[in-house]
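step=encode ok
step=design start
structure_in=
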């Protein structure tokens, strides 16, 4: 949808689709303990090494969070204090089916990703 294309249904193909368009997907957490699938059940979170990630990919300018839990974990585990790193941080509604929101409303709410992508593509 970024450029009129649409990824296939298979997860690996969707990842290739995103990467082929310069979009990286990475979990905030490298590991945690959790019984079930609820975000509220996350215990002992361990963040991915974002310092190394950003050093390896210095062109990253936009960070989007898939839901408030991801944003909160990033703030607590990675950022720990306000960052003046030149990146923009945007909270998006969770793509989880548990997030009660119509597909059309989610698509509209996720438009900042497309806008940022188009701005970079110029």
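sequence_out=
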């Amino acid at each position: 949808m970024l450029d009129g294309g649409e990824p296939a249904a298979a997860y690996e193909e969707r990842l290739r689709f995103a990467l082929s368009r310069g979009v990286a997907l990475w979990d905030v957490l490298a590991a945690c303990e959790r019984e079930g699938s609820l975000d509220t059940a996350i215990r002992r979170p361990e963040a991915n090494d974002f310092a190394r990630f950003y050093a390896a990919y210095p062109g990253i300018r936009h960070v989007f969070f898939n839901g408030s839990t991801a944003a909160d974990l990033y703030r607590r585990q990675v950022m720990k204090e306000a960052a003046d790193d030149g990146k923009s941080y945007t909270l998006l509604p969770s793509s989880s089916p548990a997030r009660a929101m119509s597909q059309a409303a989610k698509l509209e709410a996720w438009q900042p990703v497309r806008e940022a992508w188009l701005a970079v593509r110029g």
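step=design ok
step=annotate ok -> The chain has five helices and four strands.
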